[in-house]
Design a protein that fits this description.
Elements lengths: L2 H17 L2 H21 L2 H34 L2 H35 L1 H35 L4 E3 L5 E3 L2 H5 L2 H32 L3 H37 L1 H7 L6 E2 L3 E8 L4 E8 L2 H7 L5 E2 L14 H30 L7 H9 L3 H17 L2 E3 L3 E2 L10 H32 L4 H5 L1
């Protein structure tokens, strides 16, 4: 493999591994605020106990997210020097603000939330939880705004030396692509946190441990998860699809394996892209549905891959196609699981329905897979561009870093992250085994 390929593999590995942690913390941030609000509203200590427990889980995830996030930004300089030189004046602003403002807001108040409850009092502790949530979500927005500019560059001008200069900071922050991408990303994070919370509650109920907190975990997880799973489809997923149709139509065609431009294009449910014959093998589809979902007209024309030069197609159409359909398929399954759970919760039968508790408990890995597949869809779909329509991927890597050097560091990251993963699982398992503290212990 050449250096460019290894650089891409290294960044893909480190960013995929890193995002396993922030998606849970961003989702938990909101759910912890809900638990603290319920504790104030209902004056029940059991909600405070639940918030403290998930605060400890948040803290472990936050620490691993920081450790795995720092190497990614260094890679902009080490492995993607040309890219950094060309667009550093744009993306450097949002990345710097994420670190200087949002990260320190989140980390400072996380310390107060975890260790300062007695001194802060009930309302002070609520505000600490809220500011942790706010910091994590502002941090998420700056990162998404950076990626959104790479997907849909706005407010820039090209200098004589080939570098890109920002013309409006507020247009960068309020990029319409960023707004919908952020909403979709945060929705995915809440679905992850909700299913993890419900899964742990189901585990505790099935094990006959910590039953009061387990019921809180399940109820909050099911309600929040069902709500945001629906939001992921409409409006956030729907609007992101429209952005693709208007600004990256070749990406939309590749996601659906639509090789030929069609009026009344079908929505593919399953099938296998055949890149030799440029067709979809064994397709199962809904006639005309893609045209309707994209343009709200049954006979609307949707451009296929044949409408674009082959050099502008995404590098790996089959992987993009499968990533997108895994994301959508799992999202549909989440709605089914959570809707049935919500119905049983409404009928007051969920906590006694062992079959449903088993399904909830076993579902916790799948939102991680869905979120990973979603980000793969976004990033694979942008290829062959680093900044869409502006800088191609092969123009951005570091020419002074050899393939051997890049491979050495990638193997090093894999080794270190394996150790970190084992440590993370040990710490989480220890917290799960310890469980939420009993109410009497909390009062003492």
């Amino acid at each position: 493999m050449d250096a460019l390929t290894i650089d891409r593999w290294q960044f893909a590995f480190t960013v995929t591994y890193h995002y396993l942690f922030p998606q849970l913390t961003m989702g938990l941030g909101l759910l912890i605020v809900v638990l603290k609000s319920l504790a104030l509203w209902k004056n029940r200590e059991s909600f405070n106990i639940a918030a403290r427990f998930w605060g400890r889980i948040f803290g472990i995830n936050f620490a691993l997210g920081v450790v795995t996030g720092i190497p990614m930004e260094f890679q902009f300089g080490t492995n993607w020097a040309r890219f950094s030189k060309m667009v550093g004046g744009v993306i450097g602003q949002t990345l710097a603000m994420e670190g200087v403002f949002a990260f320190f807001l989140e980390s400072a108040f996380l310390g107060l939330f975890l260790f300062g409850e007695k001194r802060l009092g009930r309302w002070g502790h609520w505000w600490a939880a809220f500011l942790v949530f706010l910091g994590s979500w502002i941090s998420g927005y700056f990162i998404v705004a950076t990626d959104a500019w790479m997907q849909y560059p706005v407010a820039y001008r090209l200098a004589g030396d080939g570098s890109v200069h920002l013309t409006s900071f507020w247009q960068l922050l309020l990029n319409p692509w960023a707004l919908w991408q952020y909403a979709h990303t945060m929705g995915g994070a809440i679905v992850t946190a909700s299913l993890v919370m419900a899964a742990l509650g189901a585990y505790y109920l099935l094990s006959h441990k910590y039953t009061e907190q387990a019921r809180i975990f399940i109820a909050l997880g099911v309600v929040a998860g069902c709500m945001f799973s629906l939001i992921q489809i409409f409006p956030t997923g729907d609007q992101q699809g429209k952005m693709l149709a208007y600004h990256q139509p070749v990406t939309l065609a590749a996601m659906e394996a639509l090789f030929r431009t069609q009026q009344g294009a079908p929505l593919v449910i399953v099938g296998q892209p055949n890149m030799e014959e440029l067709k979809l093998d064994n397709p199962l589809y809904v006639p005309q549905m893609l045209s309707f979902l994209t343009y709200r007209r049954w006979k609307a024309e949707v451009k296929g891959l044949d409408a674009f030069p082959r050099k502008n197609w995404p590098d790996n159409v089959p992987l993009l196609y499968f990533s997108y359909h895994i994301m959508v398929g799992l999202g549909t399954i989440f709605i089914a699981i959570l809707a049935v759970s919500l119905f049983l919760l409404w009928r007051r039968r969920l906590f006694e329905s062992r079959w449903m508790l088993w399904i909830l408990m076993l579902s916790f890995p799948f939102p991680y897979i869905a979120n990973t597949a979603g980000w793969m869809t976004a990033e694979l779909g942008r290829q062959p561009w680093l900044v869409y329509g502006l800088i191609r991927t092969e123009q951005g890597f570091s020419p002074g870093v050899s393939a051997g050097n890049a491979l050495f560091t990638m193997l090093g990251f894999m080794g270190m992250y394996t150790v970190l993963g084992i440590l993370f699982l040990f710490l989480i398992w220890r917290e799960v085994e310890h469980g939420p503290e009993p109410i009497a212990e909390a009062h003492s």
